[in-house]
Fold this protein.
Amino acid sequence: MRDWPARFSSYARRLIPSAIRGLAESGPAKDMISFGPGEPDGSLFPAAQIQASLTKLLSDNKRAQEVLQYAASAGHPVLRGRIARYMRDKGVPCGPENVLLTNGAQQALDLVAALLIEAGDTALVQAPSYPGALQVLVARGANVAAIDRADGPRGRASLIYAMSNFHNPTGRSLTLKERQDLLALARERDAVLIEDDPYEVLRYEGELAPPLLALDTEGRSIEEARTIYLGTFSKSVVPGLRVGWLVAPSIVVDKLILMKQTHDLQAGTLAQACLADIFDWVVSEHVDVLRKAYRRRRDAVLEALAAEFGNSAGWSAPQGGFFVWLNLGEGADTRAMLDEATRTGVAYVPGFAFHNDGRGSNFLRLSFSSAPIERIPEGVRRLAAVARAKR
Ligand SMILES: Cc1ncc(COP(=O)(O)O)c(C=O)c1O
């Protein structure tokens, strides 16, 4: 059959590859130093704890049968309870009935977009924003517009998508005032507020303002909330187990449970059981190890940027997360620069990938999460040399 494309649904036709894929045309240099992917450092994965937990879960026959079986679409009951408690500690008045376990925050995003968006609806996003969210919103038929665009669509928006802490790609966290303003905007535009918060545990200094969902539910029940919170174990444990969660009014969770049933029945039973088992250790001990390790890398990147770029560029100084957002100044074209950078042995993500309206060409995202710390100064030196040559 040759007419496959004509048979694809309008949803399928709106699915476009991420702008990040296949960016660099030249192959990577042999000793590439990559600030590209926003993935955690595999050497920090708690493989031994996961292994010990799996051994425990699988060595008892009765337990093994349970954790290898189908399970509830809403998720592992113990893990739902642990997450509800964790969120209550952050000021969110929720119970297990408000928690849905998903295959990563990415699935939660797609489920929520499918729940809320009719083709042509307005979805407002921060500019810049996470490309994986832009991809979802476009595929689900939203008219995606940046919150800060004065010429953007007016009137009702079906949702506002925002990262409250250690934003991808800028690394910035919203101040309390910015959180309150965002909630006011959601009320004004009659929008559901989607709070995506994958980096929250990776805080190196400073204090976090309360989650948008906590501010939204201050003095009232979560059942009144207009905010849906997305969390994940991808940064605090490992992305490969593919477990994330969302917290929402139970009427939303109940509908999404039906959606999970049609999508994939449930998140993996074994992965959830393992996370329920190691949850307390992760929160009380493991995240401290991660914070120390990533903080050193953050410091190394900021030091190298100051040494190599001085006053010739501007950059964010994140208090957590994985990303520094670098501004090379008016006229720079970080997309055009990428090929030369790759040949020179350094990779990054150009700024245009985080916008859907052509902006960002003089910005780039540096992820300091996976480059070896001792290679960071050399990577930034290469980047500065390419940037200077392109001026
Ligand atoms: C802002 C943001 N949201 C969601 C995700 C997806 O996370 P998960 O691995 O839980 O699907 C990422 C992954 O990097 C991210 O940066």
Q: What stands out?
A: Residues 73 and 186 are 30 Å apart (CA to CA). The mean pLDDT is 95. DSSP finds 13 helices and 13 strands in the chain.
